[in-house]
Amino acid sequence: TLVASQARSDAIEADIGVNPGKYRILTGDRPTGKLHIGHYFGSISNRVRLQNLGVPSMLVVADYQVIYDRDGVGDLQDNVMSGMADYLACGIDPARTTIFTHSSVPALNQLLLPFLSLITVPELNRNPTVKDEMEHSGGRPMSGLMLTFPVHQAADILFCKANLVPVGKDQLPHIEVTRLIARRFDERYGRATPDQPVFPEPDALLSAAPSILGLDGTKMSKSRHNTIQIGMTADETAKLIKKAKTDADRHITYDPQNRPEVSNLVMLTALATGEKPEDVAARIGDGGGGALKKACTEAINEMFAPIRARRLELEADQGYLRQVLHEGNARANEIADATLRDVLAAMNMDY
Ligand code: ATP
Ligand code: MG
């Protein structure tokens, strides 16, 4: 059904520019660290594109999901505020995208109770994304919160009746859980009105974005300390790229299968300049890893210079960032309260 999901996603992508108002998008990030250029190229730039097409968008800062695999909250509040500066600097517009934190929206979290009744433990145990997260947990016993986090994600998507969720292929099982819960809610507890289910079944919008590798050649990831943060300075960026892993072949080619580290630097350069990766590789040719790193550093620093300048201004105005978050939380609470009323009415709990 990957083929079917892809076809459906392509059809929606073609329609979205024509009928942006038909859709509502939910995306989000866990504030487990500072956002990096993998986030920018992998998801933030796409969110900005969709928002600018006119699609109403919700962006959850998933603070409650930080604790599903950690013993504490870490630099939670720092990460949240840093992420706010990143989002706005990258072009997320709070007038068009509602940014909110999980923990500030009680009615969203209350949806977990009825939703948990609609899924079985064997179904949760089978979820491939949960299995994958487990593999990266270094043998840490799984918390109940991690086991049920696809259900929490369903609450994120359904509380605002989002019908479109931009994801990578690996995230399709989550969307399937959400569709299952929407359908079962309808079958078991009822409808908003006789001809209208309480929840839409959301579609995945499959992203073609490449997975960006970190400077050690494994996936760029907050928790692996191999990232170039959006908010780093040009000097910090240059120092990190200088240390990036490459290989022994001086002739630069774009060959992600056989030369992942070199190809990742080529791809980053291409993403930053708008060139094709093959053209970047040809341009550098026999210049070797040194020339590639120089080109990559210049391209990244040039592309992110205006974003970083805006970001510094935003970070200097914490009051404004907090106000944006408070306004987003207020809007999310209105939406969540209305949805919870529908849910309780459908369940005959509207006393
Ligand atoms: P953690 O280490 O806490 O898992 P992370 O850096 O992997 O953090 P996530 O919060 O797991 O980031 O990722 C959020 C979303 O950002 C992903 O679903 C994906 O769309 C995008 N993303 C993250 N890392 C990359 C990357 N290296 N390349 C492309 N996209 C990425
Ligand atoms: Mg991750």
From TrEMBL:
<keyword id="KW-0030">Aminoacyl-tRNA synthetase</keyword>
<dbReference type="Pfam" id="PF00579">
    <property type="entry name" value="tRNA-synt_1b"/>
</dbReference>
<dbReference type="GO" id="GO:0005524">
    <property type="term" value="F:ATP binding"/>
</dbReference>
<dbReference type="GO" id="GO:0005737">
    <property type="term" value="C:cytoplasm"/>
</dbReference>
<keyword id="KW-0436">Ligase</keyword>
<keyword id="KW-0547">Nucleotide-binding</keyword>
<comment type="similarity">
    <text>Belongs to the class-I aminoacyl-tRNA synthetase family.</text>
</comment>
<protein>
    <recommendedName>
        <fullName>Tryptophan--tRNA ligase</fullName>
        <ecNumber>6.1.1.2</ecNumber>
    </recommendedName>
</protein>
<dbReference type="InterPro" id="IPR014729">
    <property type="entry name" value="Rossmann-like_a/b/a_fold"/>
</dbReference>
<keyword id="KW-0067">ATP-binding</keyword>
<dbReference type="GO" id="GO:0004830">
    <property type="term" value="F:tryptophan-tRNA ligase activity"/>
</dbReference>
<dbReference type="InterPro" id="IPR002306">
    <property type="entry name" value="Trp-tRNA-ligase"/>
</dbReference>
<dbReference type="InterPro" id="IPR001412">
    <property type="entry name" value="aa-tRNA-synth_I_CS"/>
</dbReference>
<dbReference type="GO" id="GO:0006436">
    <property type="term" value="P:tryptophanyl-tRNA aminoacylation"/>
</dbReference>
<keyword id="KW-0648">Protein biosynthesis</keyword>
<dbReference type="InterPro" id="IPR002305">
    <property type="entry name" value="aa-tRNA-synth_Ic"/>
</dbReference>
<dbReference type="InterPro" id="IPR050203">
    <property type="entry name" value="Trp-tRNA_synthetase"/>
</dbReference>
